[in-house]
Amino acid sequence: MEYVHKKENYNTAGIYAIISEQENDEQWDSFVECNSAGFHEQTGMWASVKMLEGWNPVRIKFLQNHRIRGGFQILYKHKKYFGRIGYVSKGPLIDHYDSELWQLMITRLINTVKQYRIKALIIIPSIYNFHEKPEFDKGLFNPNKIFPVINATLQIDLTQSTEEILRGMRRRLRTSLKNTTELNFREGTREELETFFELMLITCKNQQVTPNPSSLKSLQKIWSLFSAKDLIKIYVAEKGNEIVSGILALRIRDLFIAWKIGWSGKFRSLAPNAALIWEMIKRAKKDGFKIFDFVSVDYRYAQLIKRKKPLTEVVIKNHTFFKLGFGGEIIRLPDSYIYI
User: Fold this and answer.
1) Sign of CA dihedral 316, 322, 328, 334
2) Which residues contact residue 5 at a Cβ distance below 8 angstroms, ignoring those fewer than 6 apart?
3) Less CB within 10 Å around the terminal CB: N or C of the chain?
4) What's the rounded Cα separation, in Å, for the pair 308 and 136?
5) Which tens digits make up the pLDDT trace of 103-115?
6) Does the pLDDT value for residue 315 go beyond 90?
7) What is the pLDDT of residue 10?
8) What is the CA radius of gyration of the chain?
9) Which residues in 49-87 are b (16+ Cβ under 10 Å) and which e?
């Protein structure tokens, strides 16, 4: 369902809002893909996937002269004993910094929460590259200390030469890459999603984390929607005819995002995960991407590792230690908020 609030004409500049509950929205998705702060989680395609897990979308678009200037997508669902909860991931989005429009969007965000009877809303802001950063009123939004979210990522600058990237790696990891002649690397296919999902489940079990996507059906839905726009790829490392590890990569603008990784646990001496990531770094660079993004690192652990502090076994076994072996820059993500 999509409809226009006819009375939501906000100022003399002709800005108005459209409220949508539909899954697919090509106009909004195009805005997200082109916006410098836009990520997959704000697209209608993502909402369509999350609906398989019981989430419902509501999307507010602010337009001027039929062109989207900004907006946000909320996903919400009912939780037993609590009521409706919702979240805005990597939003709200705005085409350029405009304090008046930003305040209009924040006001509409709050009104939407009330309108849809959402008792708690988590906001995970995106990274805005404006000189003046949009802010969330501390009197209205509290720091999120209830729901854990990713607080940092690691990025490699792909405009460097391959030699420069190699020099930035941990020596031991760099040495392990010389022992990969027994592995074959290639782009995977849709038919191999089930194999990748099984590898991902093994990895999640070993790391004691909940798999996301949580089901093969969700993964296949993501693939069918995002592959149509060339926004997703799968890459695998093989030993003989056996797929040993795989990476599911999201691609948007100049970002190559190593979103999910799966490993069978076999052939550890060949360092298949490290080898596959290195192949993906080289491929992303060749394909013209400017940034290789590892999605998440633990900021506390990353700081300890960077400062070369004595490390506990817990830190060394954390995925952050492995990822930082590739060098790159730790990016602190914006703090998340909660509105109740």
Assistant:
1) negative
2) 16, 17, 18, 19
3) N
4) 35
5) 999 999 999 999 9
6) no
7) 62
8) 21
9) bbbeeebbbbbbbbbbeeebbbbbbbbbeeeeeeebbbb
